[in-house]
Amino acid sequence: MKRLLKLIWAASFAVAAFCQSAEAQGPGITPEAWGAYKAKFLDASGRIVDDANGNISHSEGQGYGLLLAYLANSPADFEQIWYFTRTELLLRDDGLAAWKWDPTVTPHITDTNNASDGDLLIAYALALAGSTWKKSEYIEAAAKMAQALLSHLVINSGGRTLLLPGASGFDSPDRKDGPIINPSYWVYEAIPVMALLAPSDAWQKLSDDGLALLRAMQFGPRKLPADWVSLHRMPVPAAGFDAEFGYNSLRIPLYLVRAGVSDKALLARLREGMTAEDGVPATIDLTSGKPKTLLPDPGYRIVNDVVACVTNGTKLPESSQRFEPSLYYPSTLHLLGLAFIGEKHPECL
């Protein structure tokens, strides 16, 4: 126990130093924007409601909610979201969060598997909030989740360090074509903080190999990654999933720029590949290269706008600068984009 406490306090100081560095993302969501977001998506119980998906809640949404509450400098809302997360989702024996909570059925947990992106987001937000607001219990919870991720989700396969999407169902023997990855589950800005919470060289390798895979995965005419990829031999879109650059993958460029990745060739390829006519992003059929669903919502468009700002200095259009919540997912991306631009690239506003 004493050794654990020493590690947690060491992690606390390390995360504090990270938060004070130029690399860390500081609070950057206005009270008005956060008020509009939580009025629509934050239930009184502390759950973030995915209103485009049957009003369920999931570990991803709770992680996003915690991160946004931190960026909005709202400790009370953060604690409300964390209470629901720890009492309703952190029920697994391995320290990871069950990913799906459905208000229409009892028991509410309808899938006990975890989702590693949700776990990463939760641990990351807890670490930032614990450091900034001097809450040691947040740091302790973050460190436990980081260690659980390292123990159960970060694997070595074929000479690569990978992030499994879940603890079950994505590697052998569950999948003959495993390991299966989802490139959008790499939350790059969170990985250095995980390395402070649960020290291991594997975290840097995870980041490096994730970026190398993104550069290598150029499927179809538009040369885009797939939402779900088999790495059993060479990278290919995984069987049993649509071969598409879909809603999952749309957030990859935003994750890259928020983490300070400055690979202009990679960012330009992703931006160009995911864009249909008139600059509108879309989900893309990888086989044909044709758009499947046009996504004109400002919350989706801001991903391209943020990339244009970072790579070319282009100012955000008024539609992206103005936040009006629509559906949970694009609204979340919208606030993450605005927070990043406001903190790191105010010249684009």
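^ that was protein a. below is b, sequence first then the tokens
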Amino acid sequence: MKKMLVTVFCAIVLTCGMPLSTVAANSQPFKDVSPKQPYAKAVNDLAARTIIGGYPDGTFKPGNPITRGQAASIIAKMLKLDTTNVKNPGFTDVSTKNGHYQAIAALAEANIIGGYEDGRYGPNDPVKRGQFASIIVKAFDLPRYYFYDTENPFKDVVEYQSHGTNVLILYRLGITSGTSPDRFSINAQITRSQAAVLLTKTEKSKPVMVTVRADELGFDRISVRSESGGIYQDLDNKNELFQSIYTYGKNPSTDGRVQLIPLKEGRGTLALGGWIDSKEVVKKYYVQVKKVNGELQLTLEETNQYLSTAAIFDMATGEKIQRVRLSTVDGTLVNDDARFGTYQYPTRKYIGIDKPGDYIATVRFTNGKDVRFAIEAKVPKDGSFYYDTQVLQEQPSLIYDVATSYDGYYTYDEQAAKNIGKHTILTENAEDIAIVQREPGTGRFHITAKSVGTIDIAFENDIYWMLGQPGDAVSGIDTGMTIHVKEMYGIVNVSVLPIFNINPDM
């Protein structure tokens, strides 16, 4: 009798993950699934495709919990995995005679499912809602959005909770919602009808994307390189054309992947960094996003080209460029009207550099003033799209006012800034580097360069300051200033930076 009960039980379990012979022919195959039920369409769809089946009595039992074994069989069929040549995952409670063995083995080999710490898989254990979310994300290789990429409506879903991030991935894609507006019930059992709805929604909701694996590129590891310097690329919106997400499997060294999700039509760039035998390398791609049959499609074209690069410099607010004349350092004219523009911030400007080399740029401002800049553009050692640039503005002399240097700070000691007391030049032979003169009774210094070097100056009175809003600020104490004199291709520049100590308690 006991043997007979086991046989009947196995038959029932098998049927739950396998088709009935009448399913495909009957549009309403289960007598307990009314066409008026919200899950009927999903259940009938999967049944018609012979992905799910019912029980021997012709029912589907939509309210029953789905087991881990049933889930494995259903998902293996949906993914069309090869379940004939599988490696035994070694779960202590899943024998080769188990009706779900081949599906479980196939999913385990694909790193979609795993077992418990004690070596069991628990094929007859009910699947919890959080567990099923993680299974779906892995099985359908959904975008691995980070936890804080999505506004979280659920009080019972937190970042470091098992399955929490995957729950929000399904929520973001519109695949699932909670059991109430503010609860997901992550540990509640998922029913067979709920599972059917989630699976069919996932098929329809998975965004089109391209996945690049580390091993496909011959890399030991892979990462998305942050590319700066592009004239046509605002760093704050560099992924506007497509979104890139890094994800990894059990072994980040071999399972690292980058998911690329197209967002709108256009052409962009992508630089992927990696390691080959402990040597860092970069592969560059043009990214093309086009609509094909109404759906965005993303393609990659590898390239070794370099792109026009922004040589960036800062100017005072309100100064507008009229024209830029670009020459090589030996005086050969490159462009009498070179490209220029604003880069990210109103005071940050750029000059377009199309080829590596050493340049002198003469910038004419609308007020009639000319300012020269030395520019060095080198082919990057890391293989990125943009040249490595250095820019030095011609400024052989400077008036530096300690008090006004704190304009824009949240707060500072105004009294100390206006009265720094005596100043002491700490650098020997400072007079060989620059002439430093101070207006009596003020913190205004007149500095004229003589040769390359640095001069450290200490103030009698320290100046306390805070930069940023309270709660998210940095504070410190300035004890003096450093004068830097630099030279590049005959262009001389004087600049001043404070000597400071950061408050470690902030």
